[in-house]
């Protein structure tokens, strides 16, 4: 009986491993999931395009484990350590989002200058490839590297469409998508109103940047209040958990349920406050 069960187990394991051991055909690469694409785009927006999303996930796991260990060392409560681990695991993602938003605010200021440079180049009689190359040499510093890479890609492939696609992927910005698609349309179908369209776009971008800066300055207190309101109770709780009687109270099933429910309420409240205090970002329609 033991031999028969062992044979059945071996056959089952062999059947499970057979697609990997004897593949019938080359497997097509799996399409990247929506979450994977969003994470990769966020890395590009943060200026970390060379970092693989899997590395970020590993960093999140390590940060969560380290945070849970530190919290458990301070206050030996399993539920509190779990909450600390979850918070620590999210910290790299929060830092990534903060860096991406900061870079977007920085580039939002220079987009009108990019458009003005394009208008000047077109008026000077330059072709679109020459205008892109000029932005890679003397454009704003925040976008110079992306346009220089687009110029190199254009020199290598000779196809400005491929260079435009690469430029959009490197910038990962809705304003860049709009500018690039305007240039692509002018390249493919022609147009005598290109300079007028670009001038109008530059004026709109300046007004939008000024309005966003003013509103964000007024709404910054909402974000700061949300962060303080969420962090303060947990800091006090962590200090209280250093006392033996508090450890016994929170280490019970009722205490664990209280901690988990409080953590969920904190997440919901924080998300609501951040949603109230943050302006909606423009979506990428041509990305």
UniProtKB/TrEMBL annotation:
One of its GO terms (cellular component) is plasma membrane. The chain crosses the membrane at residues 6-25, 46-72, 78-98, 225-242, 254-274. It is a multi-pass membrane protein. InterPro entries: T2SS_GspF_dom. It is found in: Cell membrane. Residues 116-240 form the Type II secretion system protein GspF domain. Pfam families: T2SSF. Keywords: Cell membrane, Membrane, Transmembrane, Transmembrane helix. PANTHER family: INTEGRAL MEMBRANE PROTEIN-RELATED, PILUS ASSEMBLY PROTEIN. This is Type II secretion system protein F. It comes from Schumannella soli.
């Amino acid at each position: 009986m033991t031999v028969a069960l062992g044979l059945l187990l071996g056959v089952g394991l062999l059947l499970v491993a057979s697609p990997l051991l004897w593949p019938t055909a080359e497997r097509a690469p799996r399409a990247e999931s929506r979450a994977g694409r969003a994470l990769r785009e966020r890395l590009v927006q943060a200026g970390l395009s060379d970092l693989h999303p899997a590395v970020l996930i590993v960093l999140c796991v390590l940060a969560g484990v380290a945070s849970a260990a530190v919290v458990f060392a301070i206050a030996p409560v399993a539920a509190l350590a779990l909450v600390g681990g979850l918070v620590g695991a999210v910290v790299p993602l929060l830092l990534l989002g903060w860096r991406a938003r900061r870079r977007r605010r920085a580039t939002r200021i220079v987009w009108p200058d990019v458009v003005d440079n394009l208008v000047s180049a077109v008026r000077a009689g330059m072709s679109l490839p020459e205008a892109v190359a000029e932005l890679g040499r003397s454009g704003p510093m925040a976008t110079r590297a992306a346009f220089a890479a687009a110029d190199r890609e254009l020199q290598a492939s000779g196809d400005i469409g491929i260079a435009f696609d690469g430029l959009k992927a490197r910038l990962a910005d809705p304003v860049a998508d709009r500018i690039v698609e305007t240039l692509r349309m002018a390249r493919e179908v022609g147009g005598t109103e290109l300079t007028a369209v670009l001038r109008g776009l530059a004026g709109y971008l300046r007004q939008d940047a000024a309005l966003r800066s003013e509103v964000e300055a007024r709404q910054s207190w909402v974000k700061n209040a949300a962060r303080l309101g969420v962090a303060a109770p947990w800091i006090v709780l962590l200090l209280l958990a250093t006392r033996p009687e508090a450890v016994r109270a929170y280490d019970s099933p009722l205490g664990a349920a209280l901690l988990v429910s409080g953590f969920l309420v904190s997440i919901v409240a924080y998300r609501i406050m951040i949603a109230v205090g943050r302006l909606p970002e423009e979506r990428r329609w041509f990305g």
